[in-house]
Design a protein that fits this description.
This protein has helices at residues 2-21, 39-42, 50-68, 73-92, 110-133, 139-163. It is mainly α and 167 residues long. α3 (50-68) runs antiparallel to α4.
Length: 167
């Protein structure tokens, strides 16, 4: 139990540091902004109580908001994704025994993991970018930005599963 707690604390700190120190400064033509910190919420054990997941999602989002000088958009998007997580898992999983308690790539098959991460990241980025601009006047431009950023974020997340999160 203590080992798992330390693992998740290190994951929280590591993802926040990578996000605010490196990825917040990566922008390709103003359209591609990778946000991989949502991986923390995605990799929490499926048996975690819902209130714990929501609280950790809020702490993660507010931490990124503080370092990014944004006004709660990351908090809202992260909590929204954490709220929808059980529904997404139910939609993509056929049976209860098909999935591991830890929703990582190694514990589940790659199609399940890729579908799970894709849905979670697209929802997160959609909420984040539309809250950030807070208008539908440039709907398709924002949608283009959502999909480019989501593709890049998903690519980085999958690569991280092979390099960092092998357990």
């Amino acid at each position: 139990m203590v080992r798992q707690t330390i693992k998740y604390i290190l994951m929280f700190v590591g993802l926040v540091l990578v996000q605010v120190l490196i990825l917040n400064h990566v922008q390709f033509s103003g359209f591609v902004n990778p946000y991989i910190y949502v991986l923390f919420v995605c990799l929490l054990p499926l048996s975690s109580p819902r209130y714990v997941v929501l609280l950790l999602a809020f702490l993660l989002g507010i931490t990124v908001d503080i370092f990014s000088n944004s006004l709660g958009v990351h908090s809202f998007a992260t909590v929204f994704v954490a709220y929808l997580r059980p529904f997404v898992i139910r939609v993509i999983s056929n049976r209860e025994e098909d999935r591991s308690d830890y929703p990582g790539l190694k514990q589940n098959n790659w199609r399940w993991f890729l579908g799970y991460i894709t849905i979670m990241v697209v929802i997160h980025h959609t909420v984040l970018f539309y809250l950030e601009v807070f208008t539908f006047s440039n709907f398709f431009e924002t949608l283009y930005r959502v999909f480019l950023s989501a593709i890049f974020s998903i690519f980085v997340i999958v690569i991280s599963q092979f390099i960092v999160f092998r357990e």
